[in-house]
Amino acid sequence: MKDNCIFCKIANGEIPSHTLYEDEDFRVIFDLGPATKGHALILPKKHYDNIYALDDETASKAFLVAKKMAVAMEKAFAADGFNIVQNNGEPAGQTVFHFHMHLIPRYKGDNAIDFWKPGSTTDEELTILEEKVKKEL
Ligand code: AMP
Ligand code: ZN
User: Fold this and answer.
1) What is the number of structural domains in the chain?
2) How far does residue 96's CA lie from ligand 2's centre (Å)?
3) What was the pLDDT predicted at 36?
4) Is residue 1 domain-resident?
5) How far is the CA of 107 from the centre of ligand 1 (A)?
6) Catalytic residues
7) pLDDT tens by residue, 27-48
8) Which CATH number do you get for residue 111?
9) Rounded to whole angstroms, how far apart are CA atoms 28 and 18?
10) What is the C-alpha to C-alpha distance for residues 17 and 28, in angstroms, rounded to an integer?
11) CA angle 32, 115, 84 (to 5 degrees)
């Protein structure tokens, strides 16, 4: 646990929450400012600032929890769609610096999320970007 981290406190039960799911490593709670009905958050019980800090095992388990919750929540809320969102760093919209995944049920016509405007690129640019990433893998 990290001092003064609200999600550490919630994930470890120090602050009570409506808990949709819990196991040894994660707690799933409702978002305090839901984008849509049922918007929830997957919180690891251990503190990681963001996705870059995750170990492979936690990363794998987090997505299994996401899948399990998406299946259950889609049925429970009769959702018409589902977004899984995960923000890293302030420019990407992260406001709580304890890794978390958003589970956002979507309903026809909700207009709840407007992620990005499609841009444009070139084959040349994609070749450069591809090479840069491959060097880091
Ligand atoms: P992000 O912007 O990806 O860091 O997401 C942080 C999310 O945490 C926001 O959607 C907030 O509404 C939510 N949030 C902040 N504090 C709490 C809290 N105490 N309990 C539940 N959700 C919270
Ligand atoms: Zn934390």
Assistant:
1) 1
2) 9
3) 98
4) no
5) 21
6) 100
7) 999 999 999 999 999 999 999 9
8) 3.30.428.10
9) 9
10) 9
11) 55
| CA 57 to ligand 1 center in whole angstroms | 24
| Most ligand 1 atoms within 8 A of CB, residue of 15, 41, 51, 83 to mutate | 41
Ligand 1 atom closest to 97 (CA): 4
The domain in which residue 32 lies consists of: 6-136
Tell whether 19 is covered by a domain.
yes
Mutate to test the pocket of ligand 1, among 5, 6, 32 (most ligand atoms within 8 A of CB): 32
Residues with CB under 6 A from ligand 1: 6, 29, 31-33, 41, 87, 93-96
d(C-alpha 128, C-alpha 42), whole Å? 35
CA 78 remoteness from chain centre: 21
Domain presence at residue 132: yes
**Mean pLDDT computed over every residue of the chain:** 97
**Index of the ligand 1 atom closest to the CA of residue 100:** 3
Structure tokens of 91?
Answer: 């420019």
Q: Which residue has the tokens 């969102």?
A: 85
As a whole number of angstroms, the distance between CA 76 and CA 87 comes to 25
